[in-house]
């Protein structure tokens, strides 16, 4: 399936064996009995309570005496630890441990079993306790009320040394949030106790809210309060020094007035009625490292025939509301919509019905979102139990006690790319697959290690994508597949190197998409931008603020395009044809840029290439390459303030090198598939079906790059021309040359003149090629062809050059016949004029020579040409 859920933790595998070992050891000491049955009862009560920021998992179970036991699973050491046990038959619904594992906060309620009473605090429904557990010592009652209380310790970023003060959030069902400051001290060695436990300072940080969400990874609290029936989303950021700030507030066009009270990610909520789950609203906030901020919302569902859900792209200033109809709806359906955070994407799915991948970075066009319905592998393989989306693409299945890491599978997306028929699905799947290869560099710790182990697999999948594209260049009608692949892949190649690149480089070749996506309707609306409450930003908040500033002021958008390069390149080519070229230093600087690109490309690809590219001096392509380097560098310097010039230059070289490398890879994939060899490069061989297939894909590559005005690897046009000569009839070949599909290079034509003999067919081909060459190249090529036609062309050019400034002078009408080999007065007179001009020019410009072409050569060529015309 395209969405891969990798289990990182399972109660049944990571905790239960440890419990059994502990029980066995206890029984061996004679401290217990009834092993197997009791273990099964323990397993039934075993469940996850909370996942802390450092990845440690807190779980609970009841022993054979009904006591509540708290345990902790360390994700780093993969070891279990017993934290605390209550010798009372109570139900735990919220728990948290501080980072040093010295304090345990827990909320308990009276057991639901008949005949049981709450013996700890008569008259209250919920008891919130703070326990010293290093070692087990005092228990302090924080709350004893008739409403539910959730607890959560704050985790500072700096964990190198214990802090003297711990901070604990208490979230009340009565719609307020308090922060307790707990001072601790060490006594009698390592014993940790609470100081002034009789009075713990507290701050009320929020009240009158109807919804709240905890971000454990980033230590953020999101909540919504109602002001004049308007839903206002707010966010509090907690810092390493335990201070906090209200960061922003933004109105949301959603109705929560009758939705009751709901918390998200404050531990595992086992008290939510699963049968009513599908009828409740779903609301969650997702962020990622790029500064995105999305609010996903699905209102209460009265009937299942039609589903509506919205995503507010706060960082983009708009929202999108999607509506889809369901088929084969079960009237007793208990499953609701699930939202998952997949970094660059948000996944929306209803088990057994649909799966929707929404592009967070590029939300403008619906074709960049992947929508699947019906009997699809991706839908069928997803868990049907409710999932809880945590920070960092973590997903918790509370029912089974499994913690997953959700990620997109590039290999599965490739299979979907191969099998799907709709252009919109191909577009979305291609972008999903290309983004998958970028995820590894953002992983940390143990996930980074796993990503390194998968590098070869990711690279293999990427090459398979290239192979598929080379075999299906005509598979899409709504967009050019090669263009989309080159632009998107090049974008991702530099995306991670510097912030704001996504605003400066195009990520797609498609600017508009007006075709509807089958099975879903969409309404897009502008939304209010957040009101930022602070003025100094760092990290994520700096990136979010940059995104918001871009939405406010970037009109038009800053995406780079090659229009300026096109004009300048055409000017340089025109100057070259007329022989008027601007300063040598300017042109040399451009060509030096091209040399840097080629060197950068070759340094990254040490293995020899199958195709003969990058091996010749293609001045036109090098000019285009160098101009693109200059223009793109200026573009970055204008918009990336504060970034080192050297870093920008390297990023530009990497980007353009990637463009060229992708073209090489596409061509090599086709070359490898058709098993072409080096003898293809000679003109004296006949074209095969394999050569024609490669010629076809080269033509498609040329079309794709021409419309975007992108450079091609030097040697591309030479190889393209050779294959064209092999595969095309003469009239088709000449038509391709005249229409600009085939560009004649000096290397290609030189090889043609040397490889082909002077048969009548080859003479016709050679002459047709020569007359289509630019004058300067044509003169060089003619001297390589020992043939009367080339002599004739050389003579004509020589005469034209001599006579272009000739002024007729009075001459003696008598010609000295003794100096000529035959009596043909018009030719004799003409040759005498040429000889005089040559003598004059030699006197004025003694250095200028033209490869021994003189009046005598012209005379000989003229006679041969006349002889041929007369058939003598």
From TrEMBL:
Q: Which GO annotations describe the biological process of this protein?
A: positive regulation of amyloid-beta formation
What Pfam families does the database record attribute to this sequence? GSAP-16
Q: Where is the Gamma-secretase-activating protein C-terminal domain?
A: 660-767
Q: Identify one Gene Ontology CC term for this UniProt entry.
A: trans-Golgi network
Write down the InterPro entries for this protein, in alphabetical order: GSAP_C_dom (IPR028010), GSAP_fam (IPR026172)
Q: Which residues form a coiled coil?
A: none
Record-given protein name: Gamma-secretase-activating protein isoform X1
């Amino acid at each position: 399936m395209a969405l891969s859920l990798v289990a990182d933790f399972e109660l049944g595998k990571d905790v239960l064996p440890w419990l059994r070992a502990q029980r066995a050891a206890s029984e061996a000491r004679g401290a217990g009995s009834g092993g197997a049955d009791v273990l099964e009862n323990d397993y039934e009560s075993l469940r996850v309570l909370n996942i802390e920021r450092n990845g440690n998992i807190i779980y609970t179970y009841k022993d054979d005496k009904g006591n509540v036991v708290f345990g902790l699973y360390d994700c780093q050491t993969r070891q279990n630890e017993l934290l605390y046990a209550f010798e009372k038959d109570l139900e735990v619904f919220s728990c948290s441990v501080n980072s040093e594992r010295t304090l345990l906060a827990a909320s308990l309620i009276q057991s639901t079993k008949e005949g049981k009473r709450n013996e700890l605090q008569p008259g209250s429904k919920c008891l919130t306790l703070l326990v010293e557990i290093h070692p087990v010592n005092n228990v302090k009652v924080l709350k004893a009320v008739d409403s539910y209380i959730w607890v959560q310790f704050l985790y500072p970023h700096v964990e190198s040394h214990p802090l003297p003060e711990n901070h604990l959030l208490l979230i009340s069902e009565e719609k307020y949030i308090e922060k307790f400051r707990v001072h601790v001290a060490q006594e009698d060695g390592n014993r940790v106790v609470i100081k002034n436990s009789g009075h713990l300072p507290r701050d009320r940080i929020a009240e009158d809210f109807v919804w709240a969400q905890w971000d454990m990874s980033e230590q953020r609290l999101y909540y919504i309060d109602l002001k004049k029936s308007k839903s206002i989303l707010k966010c509090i950021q907690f810092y390493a020094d335990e201070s906090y700030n209200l960061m922003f507030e933004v109105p949301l066009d959603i109705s929560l007035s009758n939705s009751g009270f709901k918390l998200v990610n404050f531990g595992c909520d086992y008290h939510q009625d699963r049968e009513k789950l599908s009828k409740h609203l779903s609301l969650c906030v997702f962020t990622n490292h790029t500064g995105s901020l999305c609010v996903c919302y699905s209102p209460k569902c009265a009937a299942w025939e039609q589903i509506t859900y919205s995503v507010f792209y706060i960082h983009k200033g708009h929202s999108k509301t999607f509506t889809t109809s369901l088929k084969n709806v079960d009237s007793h359906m208990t499953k609701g919509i699930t939202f998952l955070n997949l970094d660059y994407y948000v996944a929306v799915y209803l088990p057994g019905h649909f799966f929707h991948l929404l592009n967070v970075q590029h939300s403008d066009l619906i074709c960049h979102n992947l929508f699947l319905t019906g009997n699809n592998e991706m839908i069928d393989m997803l868990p049907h139990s409710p999932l809880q989306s945590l920070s960092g693409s973590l997903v918790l299945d509370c029912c089974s006690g499994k913690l997953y890491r959700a990620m997109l599978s590039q290999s599965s997306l490739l299979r979907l790319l191969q099998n799907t028929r709709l252009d919109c699905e191909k577009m979305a799947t291609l972008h999903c697959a290309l983004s998958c290869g970028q995820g590894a560099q953002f992983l940390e710790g143990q996930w980074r290690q796993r990503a390194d182990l998968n590098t070869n697999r990711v690279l293999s999948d990427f090459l398979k994508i290239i192979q598929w594209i080379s075999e299906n260049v005509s598979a899409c009608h709504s967009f050019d597949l090669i263009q989309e692949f080159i632009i998107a892949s090049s974008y991702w190649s530099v995306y991670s190197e510097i912030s704001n690149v996504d605003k400066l480089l195009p990520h797609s070749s498609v600017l508009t998409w007006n075709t509807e996506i089958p099975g879903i309707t969409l309404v897009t609306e502008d939304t209010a931008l957040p009101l930022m409450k602070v003025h100094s930003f760092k990290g994520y908040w700096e990136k979010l603020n940059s995104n918001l500033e871009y939405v406010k002021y970037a009109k038009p958008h800053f995406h780079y395009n090659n229009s300026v390069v096109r004009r300048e390149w055409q000017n340089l080519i025109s100057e070259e044809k007329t022989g008027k070229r601007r300063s040598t230093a300017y042109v040399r600087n451009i060509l030096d840029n091209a040399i840097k690109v080629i060197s950068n490309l070759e340094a990254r690809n040490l293995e020899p290439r199958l195709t003969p590219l990058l091996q010749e001096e293609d001045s036109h392509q090098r000019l285009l390459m160098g101009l693109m380097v200059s223009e793109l560098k200026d573009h970055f310097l204008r918009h990336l303030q504060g970034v080192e010039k050297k870093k920008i230059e390297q990023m530009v070289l990497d980007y353009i090198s990637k463009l060229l490398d992708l073209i090489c890879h596409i061509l090599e994939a086709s070359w490898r598939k058709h098993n072409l060899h080096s003898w293809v490069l000679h003109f004296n061989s006949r074209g095969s079906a394999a050569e024609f297939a490669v010629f076809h894909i080269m033509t498609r590559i040329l079309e794709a790059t021409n419309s975007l005005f992108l450079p091609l690897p030097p040697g591309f046009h030479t190889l393209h021309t050779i294959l064209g000569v092999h595969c095309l009839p003469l009239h088709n070949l000449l038509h391709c040359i005249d229409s600009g599909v085939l560009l004649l290079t000096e290397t290609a034509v030189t090889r043609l003149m040397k490889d082909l003999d002077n048969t009548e067919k080859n003479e016709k081909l050679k002459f047709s090629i020569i007359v289509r060459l630019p004058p300067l190249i044509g003169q060089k090529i003619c001297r390589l062809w020992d043939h009367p036609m080339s002599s004739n062309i050389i003579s004509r050019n020589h005469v034209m050059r001599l006579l272009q400034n000739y002024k007729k002078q009075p001459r003696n009408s008598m010609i000295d016949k003794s100096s000529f080999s035959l009596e043909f007065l018009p030719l004799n007179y003409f040759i005498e004029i040429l000889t005089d001009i040559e003598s004059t020019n030699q006197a004025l410009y003694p250095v200028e020579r033209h490869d021994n072409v003189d009046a005598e050569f012209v005379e000989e060529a003229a006679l041969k040409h006349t002889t041929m015309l007369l058939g003598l």
